[in-house]
Amino acid sequence: MSRSRLARFAAAAVGLALAALLVGAVVITPSSSNPPSPAGRGAVSVEAVSGPGDATDAIASLQARLRRVPADSGSWAALGLAYVQQARVSGDPTYYGKAAGAFRRSLREQPESNAPALTGQAALAAARHRFGRSLQLARQAQRINEYDSVSLGVMVDALVELGRYGEAFRELQRMVDLKPGVPSYSRVSYSYELRGDLRGAHYAMRQALKVAYSTDDKAFALFQLGELAWNQGDLSQAARRYRQGLTLAPSWVPNLYGLAKTAAARGDDAKAVARYERVIERLPQPQYLIEYADFLTSLDRPAEAAEQRDLIDAQVQLQRAAGVNLDLELAVYDASNGREYEALTATRAAWKERKGVFVEDAYAWALHVNGKDRKALTHAIAAERIGMRNALFAFHRGMIEKSLGMVPEATRSLERALEINPYFSPLLAPQARQALIELRRSG
Length: 443
Prior knowledge:
With 443 residues, this protein is mostly helical. The protein has 2 domains: 3-31 and 50-268, Tetratricopeptide repeat domain (Serine Threonine Protein Phosphatase 5, Tetratricopeptide repeat), CATH 1.25.40.10; 327-442, Serine Threonine Protein Phosphatase 5, Tetratricopeptide repeat, CATH 1.25.40. The protein contains 23 helices and no strands. Helix 11 runs parallel beside helix 13, helix 12 (235-248) runs antiparallel to helix 13 (253-265) and helix 17 runs parallel beside helix 19. It is globular.
């Protein structure tokens, strides 16, 4: 799955998402003279309800206020943001429809210069993976209030997802200058990771942890530090960070998910299964279901894996009914599960709008499983253009090169995948090792 989904999950993850080839490096240079944000009519701090934690209390408080003051446009916008966050935390996509209604009501109460509502609509569009629309709305909000770091963060995320890394870098630097903190530092960390600068990524994320003041922000920062270690194959460090985060915020699922996959990588199958079951019970997101199904398949437990795949289909239907576009996120899964043509159709459509490296990698793999290896290789090479050290990218490229009979090149790519992270997938990492055996024999 795309790192941008976990981090701007975190976000996201934020899941989860910038190129040194295009612009200069992002630097952390907090400014001590940030201008004050204009406090226009209906201004509200949406950032207060947009962290990684549960938004139940915020929702209840805002609903109570709106019963007393139903024309408060700012509270309607804040409620919408709280609904967006609750959808992410709970896995219940019906909150997205509630969020859309809250933002519409806010704009009805204040049709002009309503930056909070526009920012909320931008965040909702991003949550539904409509990044072009998200960018458009975030820019509208910025034109009203250029000092709003929340809309600026949404804009940075959209630019990254669209593959417009040069613009994203410039806006990210402005965000750091405007408001150094967990949201800006975590995005800086991701920008470094995308460019393969892991020291910079770790440093920026440690800065985020240092300035985090809430339990949820600390748990989020610890998860991201765990992900950085995981992506480098450092199981001990990854598990330590995930455990620290889970201790701080036991109800926040991503750190439990991190401990599930580290247990699986260490061969502690019983513990991994128990943890994955708890993750799925609490937050049955498609990403977690896919990874758990793959793990069960690696354990030769096909019936249980099939149950997870049924859950995947059910969750996808729920998400799509709520307006979420999961086509790209499911493309690699579809390509490996008998839906080759659907994967190619989805990735081709995504590529027309989004020129990011994760889209390019998914498109390359979909082309490969449909027998279009020459074109696939072009995109697989381009997916690594900004320098990200991604084991899945290297694996995909190596298997495409192997299919084309490029023995030395395929060997190098597959060795690199396992060097980056030998545990990157319970199914694909063994395939990489087996492919290397075959390549060395043929060489």
